[in-house]
Amino acid sequence: MRLLLTLLLCGLAVPVAAQTLQPVHVSRDKTHFVLGDTEQRFVVWGVNYDHNSDGELLDEYWVDRWDEVVEDFGEIKSLGANCVRIHLQLGKFMDAADRPNQSALDQLAKLLKLAEDTGLYLDITGLACYHKANIPEWLDPLSEQERWKTQALFWESVAKVCRDSPAVFCYDLMNEPILPGNKKAGEEAETQWLGGELGGKFFVQRLSLDLAGRTRHQLAKAWVDQMVEAIRKHDDRHMITVGVIPWVFAFGGGKPLFYSPEVGERLNFVSVHFYPKKDEVQKAVTALRAYDVGKPIVIEEMFPLKCSEDELAQFVSQSSEFADGWISFYWGQTAEQLREKEPATIAHAITASWLQRFQTMSAQMRGTK
């Protein structure tokens, strides 16, 4: 019954969505998003669709269980979302350092059509190495220069597929990239490209193992510029960003690196990931203001992980004075399904309650500007 209702909803939405989905871009004054050739403001209210309830990443099941993806997109739409952040694994899209996987690119084209028909924009995050089992054996032995060249080819290939679709909200070059530190005398360079593990996944990735005489800003700029140039070979329309850890929030001070004038010149808007802590909503809002650098701001990840549901809603409300979008999470199960699970867990209850709150807030937040 649930599948039937979802398909009916999707079917009813197809003609309207397909006719009305307009490209999103930054306004002339570079302060917010607008639709098409109009001055109509667009506010992002979306979800990360990074994995399902079993922890599988999208590109691990989107071929064999396509109906599941269609169903999930319908459920995401029913939550009131207008954007879905997807995470594409490098190992699924590259057969070799110099050879893209055409089947994966074809499936991405199919997903774009689904997004267009459902009326959902895509935040396409790439170069993921979340599951070690899907990291090719040939990747880590590559030199930094070779690794970057492969990453650039990934983005060239993706941009070629996506360039004409109005469903593309943006390309996010990498989830939470980090840089090596300054070595002390006698210290060895980093040896691991991935950061720490979280729930069996590695969400953080290094751009380099060694600064090699460069400043952190110089290294970050060189990488960003190379990835942007790869995309712009085929797509000069869609926006580009990088989803970052808010070190300003984590360390209680400092300035953004990827969104500094030097590094972020070619990034169209700011994407930052915030998980406010209990009793520290105002601190999070203050830290977020450090990323108000004259470009639209999207909180690309948020969830009541370290705070209450009410506190996260307060964070959204207070940041709406200067932010232009918020993206939470959807893991393939509705609030109703989560409440029916046996045995029930606190995590199920928190997620179910937040999904319901997210849905309730959707109309208001999409019309905040």
From TrEMBL:
<keyword id="KW-0326">Glycosidase</keyword>
<keyword id="KW-0732">Signal</keyword>
<dbReference type="GO" id="GO:0004553">
    <property type="term" value="F:hydrolase activity, hydrolyzing O-glycosyl compounds"/>
</dbReference>
<comment type="similarity">
    <text>Belongs to the glycosyl hydrolase 5 (cellulase A) family.</text>
</comment>
<protein>
    <submittedName>
        <fullName>Cellulase (Glycosyl hydrolase family 5)</fullName>
    </submittedName>
</protein>
<keyword id="KW-0378">Hydrolase</keyword>
<dbReference type="InterPro" id="IPR017853">
    <property type="entry name" value="GH"/>
</dbReference>
<feature type="signal peptide">
    <location>
        <begin position="1"/>
        <end position="18"/>
    </location>
</feature>
<dbReference type="GO" id="GO:0000272">
    <property type="term" value="P:polysaccharide catabolic process"/>
</dbReference>
<dbReference type="Pfam" id="PF00150">
    <property type="entry name" value="Cellulase"/>
</dbReference>
<dbReference type="InterPro" id="IPR001547">
    <property type="entry name" value="Glyco_hydro_5"/>
</dbReference>
<feature type="domain" description="Glycoside hydrolase family 5">
    <location>
        <begin position="74"/>
        <end position="284"/>
    </location>
</feature>
